[in-house]
Structures are given as structure tokens and as C-alpha cells.
């Protein structure tokens, strides 16, 4: 198995091992090939963007056979998958919150400006077919993006219509019965004024895990994506552009994450799951965006962007992960999200910037019915009995009781509606004091109102231990039985909807120095924010409030161009101070006696470095290096007893990420790409000892060779070329694991004009 590590090491050495602050793309002095970043709501070249942003262009998507957003995460410095494809972290910050606390995300994925709901990121409309560019912003984006951007933001921009006719198609066949058939194209409806573009994609796969109980794929993919766009540039209104788009996406597939039975010998090669109840997700997503832009002249332009997203999903999972019919869960959820932004941009000789108003409304529902197994709280039983029986007898009763009833079977039905409404005023500007020195600044005033309610019905559906079987301990067992039934009863009830309002002022300030036309440095300080809310404690059937959390981010950047524009070297270094961190705390009455509290204080620091070099028209390469160190400075939780987790690292926060790749273009239309990525070991949980939740480093190597003519191309590719076997998550108690994707090999035929 050592040969693939040697190969990867050689590759990185050859590529000079560096970077990913930005593009992972070929630099060029040709303006047509200049990388333009749009995620900060102003079109700006990558070399003039001080924020740490990784840009994956359409060219790179094709060269590296990138099919999903998860493929982009794996190739980006200081970005990592978490718990399989269920989420991601940026600079060590899990987009769901570093310890599970809080309702809002810390990072949001946008498609054409519309936010993708948090609940569907792993099964959502984020495939890369007909995508023009992906931008991953690292670090707080609260000034520009507002809510749900404390860690960063991901912007996916799809292809716009053009006034020239074009059409392209793709057929892909690869391992695990994976197929993709896709088409896209369009042109003018009214020459020079009205154009359209449509795209469609059908993707199917059996996945790489087999369910041995149901004799079916455990995590299949069956997705359909249909997108249509209109571009209107009326000749009667010079400078006006309107873009209207509609996207329908639906998929039937596996659950948020897929477990492999780790008790099976060599479970990386014998990838099975024994669940009798389906672990599945069905997602239906519709998105409409209306983007209006008007050039007012004199450097001023007015823009409005309205988005509407309607998402519904149903999820099922086996609560006992076995062939027995013991526990299961059915979840129905979704959200209707509306956003509206009005923005004025200005580009002058010395001053450039923008100011705008923003409105956000999310109406979310989540209903579930499940039979769940709640671990019987032995320590709590012993603690309650000690005053009456003494420590020794209380411990004996608790041990006997948990042996007889290790889990409390509960039939649980719940309904949790949530509404969030946000209004904001924001501005961002750059002022050139001299030809070299510029001041940077901005702010956002954010006002959020959120409302959450809860209703739950819980019933005990098991068999209690018979007190008569325990002789003189019978009264104690009768008392514990009553307490267990009381715990279940406590989980029934309703919490009246609680409304809370939060105001936040989020400033940003910095300066940039252009030392030469090709070398610039900048320093920026800005405040990040995630709003407070109310958490529903399932065990107590009550709402508990929690407060906002804030970060201060201090960042240095370097942007440089060398060798007449053929080489770029970019870097960012950062330090983040985090206060009032939202964390999930347990209050002693079992696994589900949890809600969010402001218990944490932490800090993190690191850097990203990026190189991209076009050696010649026949060869180019890139490389990236990311480093992050995270630490909880203060983190006290109550899990039966007070536990101080201070000093631990964030979950899914790799200290090192590396990526590199090279493109070769041979004579006669032949070409090739090889790329690799490395992620150091990560901890998958916040617990003592944290080493028990460590998963090992992994290195992935991908390759593609192809032949291309003017109107068609044929490629052979291999992902995870050396079949690296690695865990994303491993539970030593249940002996189930989330593993990385094994090697897959396939062919792609593309044609177009």
C-alpha cells in the first residue's frame, strides 16, 4: 500500500507543495482568461480580492471531472468534508456549528444567489453540470452576506444565456453502475435582446455499499436536474439587464450519511449495512431567481436580486441499524425561503463600493414519527438512589436495571415549526488614498426575529423489568420503573412558540498596499456573527433561550503575479477570536436531555497559500497548502457531571490540507490531468479523551486522460486511483463507520458546438 503515498509525495514535491487561497486555476495576462470573483457582490479580479477565496472555474471543473460540490471541497485548502457528504468545515469550523449548538448555519451554500437550505446540502441541488464557477470564501462574510456566514460562504454560479447558439451534451458511465446523461444549450430568441438557456441532467448510481438484509443498494442516487434561464437586454433601455431563472431538482437516494458495518472483516472491501428499515432521503427543490441590473452612468449601477426557494424532503432511517425491526424514524421537513436585495454599486477613480438593503424570510417545518431507543441513564439512576440506599446498593440496582433494560423504547411524534425574518443595511467600500495605499471598510446592521415552537407526544413501548424478580430490591426497581415512565412522560407536551429579536452591528476595516503593479498586501479586521434563538429540549419538552455568538477575524493577505503573468503566488493568514460560543449541553436525564447554551470561548489561527503556474500552452500546474489550529479556551458541559472540555480541538478541523494538480496537452488532441489532495487526521467529536475519536490522514489521487477534437471529446478517468481506504467517522461503541469513497473508474463522451 505504500506505493500510492510515495506517488503522492512525489507529486507534491514536483508541484512545489503550496496553496489554495484562491483559484487553483491557470493565471493569464490575457484579460479574457482573468479570473473574476463575484461573490462579494461586485465583479473584481481575483488578484484584487483581499478575502481568502478559492475559485474553481468551468475549465477546471471539466479538466478534473468534478461532478458534485463535495468534489470541490476535497480539492480546496482548509475546507473538509464532515461525517461523509453530510456537510463541510471551513478553517476548522463545521458549517452546522462546531459542537452541534444553534439552529443557524455557520456557512451557507448559494446557487445563483439563492441560499440552499441547510437540511438538504448532502442531497441538494449542488451538482456541477453547466456550472460556470464555484467560489469558496473562507473567514467571516457577515458584512457582505449577513446571516449564516460566520465561517464563510460558498457561491455556485451557473451558466448564463448568450446571444450565440450553442449546445453540449455528456454521457458518463463509471463504477457502481453510475451513469450521468446531461445536455445544455441555448441562444437568441430575439437577436441582441432576448436569449435563453436550458440544461438537464440525469444521474444514477447504486453507490458502493450493499444492504444485506434488503438485498438492495444502501445509498443509491437517482437525481434529476432541470434549469432554464432567460436574459433580456432591451435596446429601448440601454444599460439594463434582466435575468430570470428557474431550477427544479429532485433526488431519491441515501440518508444524510451511510454507515458501514465495521464488524465485518475488511469492511473497506466488504461494504455492507444490515438495516432492515430504509436509510433514505427524497428531496424536491424548486428555485426561482430574478436578477435586475441597470447601469445609471457615471460609475453608478443599481441591482436587485430576488430569490424564492421551496424545498421538501422526507427521510427515513433505521434506529437500531440491524436486521431486527426495533427502532425507526420517519422525518418530513422543508422550508420556503424568500430573499430580496437592493444594491447600489459605484466605481470611481478613487472610491469604489456598494450599499444595500436586504430582506430574508424562512418558513420551515419539521415533523417526525419514530420509535427510538434511549440509553437507560445508569449514572442518573445510581445518583438518585444513593441518598436512600447508599452508594453501593444504588450502584448495584443501576447495574441490574440497565442490564435488564439497556435502552428505553419510546414512540415519539413531534412537530417543530420555525420562522426566521431578517432585515439588514450594509455597505462596503475601498478608497485610494494614493496610487498605492487604499483604505478598506464596511459594515452591516442586522436585525433578526426568529420564532420556534414545539409539540411532542412520547409513549413507552417496551417492557419494564418486573420488580418481583429482584427480591429485596423490588421497591427500588418499582421506583426506577416509575421514574423511567416519568422521563418518557416529560418528553410529551407542547412549548408555545417563542419569538426573539436580535440586533447586531458588524464592522469591517483595513488597508491595502500595492507595492508594485504585481504585488499587494492587505490587512482586514471584521466581526462575524451568528444569531441567538431558542432550543427545544426533547427530554423536557421545553424551549430554552440562548444568545448570539460573535467572532473577530484578523487577516493578512498577499497577492502577487510573476513571470509576466504566468505565475501567481497568493496567501492569507488569519487569527479568529470567538466568544459566547453556542454549544450543545446535556443536563443529565438521558441522551436527549440537551439544548443549546452559550458555554464556549475559543480561538483559531492558520493560513492558506496558493500557486498556479502556466509553464507553456502544453503544461500548467497548481498547488495549495492550508493550515489551521483550533482550541476551545473555555468549554464546560454537563453530561451527568460537570465536564471541562477546555483545551480540546474542534471536530473535523484538519491541521493540514494540501492539493495539487497538473494539466498536460499533447499533440494530436491528446491531454491528461492528475490531481491529488491530502487531509491530515481529524477528531470527529468533542469528548475526553479526544484521541478516541480520531480518524487517520488520507491522500486521494485522481487522474484523467482524454482525446479532444473541435466538436467532441472522449476521456477515461479514475477517482481515488490507488483505492485509499479511510474512515470519515468510526463509532467504537456501535461498530459502525462512515467511510470514504473507494476507487471508481469511468469514461466520458462529450459533444457540442
Short description:
InterPro entries: Beta-barrel_TonB, Beta-barrel_TonB_sf, Plug_dom, TonB-dep_rcpt-like. The protein has about 750 residues and is mostly beta strands.
Number of domains: 1
Query: Helix fraction?
Result: under 10%
User: Into which percentage range does the β-strand content fall?
Assistant: over 45%
The total of beta strands comes to: 44
Major sheet: 24 strands, antiparallel
Which second-level CATH architecture applies?
Beta Barrel
Shape, principal axes of CA atoms: globular
Distance between the termini: 44 Å
Rg for CA atoms? 27 Å
- Output the CATH class name: Mainly Beta
CATH fold name? Maltoporin, Chain A
Question: What is the fourth-level CATH superfamily?
Answer: TonB-dependent receptor, beta-barrel domain
Which residues sit in consecutive blocks of at least 5 with pLDDT less than 50?
1-32
Task: Tally the helices.
Answer: 7
Averaging pLDDT over every residue, what do you get?
90
Structural class: mainly beta
Organism: Sphingobium chlorophenolicum L-1
Family: Belongs to the TonB-dependent receptor family.
Signal peptide: 1-22
Membrane topology: Multi-pass membrane protein
Amino acid at each position: 500500500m505504500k506505493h500510492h503515498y510515495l506517488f503522492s509525495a512525489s507529486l507534491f514535491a514536483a508541484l512545489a507543495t503550496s496553496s489554495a487561497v484562491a483559484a487553483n486555476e491557470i493565471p493569464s495576462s490575457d484579460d479574457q482568461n482573468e479570473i473574476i470573483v463575484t461573490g462579494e457582490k461586485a465583479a473584481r479580479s481575483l488578484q484584487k480580492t483581499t478575502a481568502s477565496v478559492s475559485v474553481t472555474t468551468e475549465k477546471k471543473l471539466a479538466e478534473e471531472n468534478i461532478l458534485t460540490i463535495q468534489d470541490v471541497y476535497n480539492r480546496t485548502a482548509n475546507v473538509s468534508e464532515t461525517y461523509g457528504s453530510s456537510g463541510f468545515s471551513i478553517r476548522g469550523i463545521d458549517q452546522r456549528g462546531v459542537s452541534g449548538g444553534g439552529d443557524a448555519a455557520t456557512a451557507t451554500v448559494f446557487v445563483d444567489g439563492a441560499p440552499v437550505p441547510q437540511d438538504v446540502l448532502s442531497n441538494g441541488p449542488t451538482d456541477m453540470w453547466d456550472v460556470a464557477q464555484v467560489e469558496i470564501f473562507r473567514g467571516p462574510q457577515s458584512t457582505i452576506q449577513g446571516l449564516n456566514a460566520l465561517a464563510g460562504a460558498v457561491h455556485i454560479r451557473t451558466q448564463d444565456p448568450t446571444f450565440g447558439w450553442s449546445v453540449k451534451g455528456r454521457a458518463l458511465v463509471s463504477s457502481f453502475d453510475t451513469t450521468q446523461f446531461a445536455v445544455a444549450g441555448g441562444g437568441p430568441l430575439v437577436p441582441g435582446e432576448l436569449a435563453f438557456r436550458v440544461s438537464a441532467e440525469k444521474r444514477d448510481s447504486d453507490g458502493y455499499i450493499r444492504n444485506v438484509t434488503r438485498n438492495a443498494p444502501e445509498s443509491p442516487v437517482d437525481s434529476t436536474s432541470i434549469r432554464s434561464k432567460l436574459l433580456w437586454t432591451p435596446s429601448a433601455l440601454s444599460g439594463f439587464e434582466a435575468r430570470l431563472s428557474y431550477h427544479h431538482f429532485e433526488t431519491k437516494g441515501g440518508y444524510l450519511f451511510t454507515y458501514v458495518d465495521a464488524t465485518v472483516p475488511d469492511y473497506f472491501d466488504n461494504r455492507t449495512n444490515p438495516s432492515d428499515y430504509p436509510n433514505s432521503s427524497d428531496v424536491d427543490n424548486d428555485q426561482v431567481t430574478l436578477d435586475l441590473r441597470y447601469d445609471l452612468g457615471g460609475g453608478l449601477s443599481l441591482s436587485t436580486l430576488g430569490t424564492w426557494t421551496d424545498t421538501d424532503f422526507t427521510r427515513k432511517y433505521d434506529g437500531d441499524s440491524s436486521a431486527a425491526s426495533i427502532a425507526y424514524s420517519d422525518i418530513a421537513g422543508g422550508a420556503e425561503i424568500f430573499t430580496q436585495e437592493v444594491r447600489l454599486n459605484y466605481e470611481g477613480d478613487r472610491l469604489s463600493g456598494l450599499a444595500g438593503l436586504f430582506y430574508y424570510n424562512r418558513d420551515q417545518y419539521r415533523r417526525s414519527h419514530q420509535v427510538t431507543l434511549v440509553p437507560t441513564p445508569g449514572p442518573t439512576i445510581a445518583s438518585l438512589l444513593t441518598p436512600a440506599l447508599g452508594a453501593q446498593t444504588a450502584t448495584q440496582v443501576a447495574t441490574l436495571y440497565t442490564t435488564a433494560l439497556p435502552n428505553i423504547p419510546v414512540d415519539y411524534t413531534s412537530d417543530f415549526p420555525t420562522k426566521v425574518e431578517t432585515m439588514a443595511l450594509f455597505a462596503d467600500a475601498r478608497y485610494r488614498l494614493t496610487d498605492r495605499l487604499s483604505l478598506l471598510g464596511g459594515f452591516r446592521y442586522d436585525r433578526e426575529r426568529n420564532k420556534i415552537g414545539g409539540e411532542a407526544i412520547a409513549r413507552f413501548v417496551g417492557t419494564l423489568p418486573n420488580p418481583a424478580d429482584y427480591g429485596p430490591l423490588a421497591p427500588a426497581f418499582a421506583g426506577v420503573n416509575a421514574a423511567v415512565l416519568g422521563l418518557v412522560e416529560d418528553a410529551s407536551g407542547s412549548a408555545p412558540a417563542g419569538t426573539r429579536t436580535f440586533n447586531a452591528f458588524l464592522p469591517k476595516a483595513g488597508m491595502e498596499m500595492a507595492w508594485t503593479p504585481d504585488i499587494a498586501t492587505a490587512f482586514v479586521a471584521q466581526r462575524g456573527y451568528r444569531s441567538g434563538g431558542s432550543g427545544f429540549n426533547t427530554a423536557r419538552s421545553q424551549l430554552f433561550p440562548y444568545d448570539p455568538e460573535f467572532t473577530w477575524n484578523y487577516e493578512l493577505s498577499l497577492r502577487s503575479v510573476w513571470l509576466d503573468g504566468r505565475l501567481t503566488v497568493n496567501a492569507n493568514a488569519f487569527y479568529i477570536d470567538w466568544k459566547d460560543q453556542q454549544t450543545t449541553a446535556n443536563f443529565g436525564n438521558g441522551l436527549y436531555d440537551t439544548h443549546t447554551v452559550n458555554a464556549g470561548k475559543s480561538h483559531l489561527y492558520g493560513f492558506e497559500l496558493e500557486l498556479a503556474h502556466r509553464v507553456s500552452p502544453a503544461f500548467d500546474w497548481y498547488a495549495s497548502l492550508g493550515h489551521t489550529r483550533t482550541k476551545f479556551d473555555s468549554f464546560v458541559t454537563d453530561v451527568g457531571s460537570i465536564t471541562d472540555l477546555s483545551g480540546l480541538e474542534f471536530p473535523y478541523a484538519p491541521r493540514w490540507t494540501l492539493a495539487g494538480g497538473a494539466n498536460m496537452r499533447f499533440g494530436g488532441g491528446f491531454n491528461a490531468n492528475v490531481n491529488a489532495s491530502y487531509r491530515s487526521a481529524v477528531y470527529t467529536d468533542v469528548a475526553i479523551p479526544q484521541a478516541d475519536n480520531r480518524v487517520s490522514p488520507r491522500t486521494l489521487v485522481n487522474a484523467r486522460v482524454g482525446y479532444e477534437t473541435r466538436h467532441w471529446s472522449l476521456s477515461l478517468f479514475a477517482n481515488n486511483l490507488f483505492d485509499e481506504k479511510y474512515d470519515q467517522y468510526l463509532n467504537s461503541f456501535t461498530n459502525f463507520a462512515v467511510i470514504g469513497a473507494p476507487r471508481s473508474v469511468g469514461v466520458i463522451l462529450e459533444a457540442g458546438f
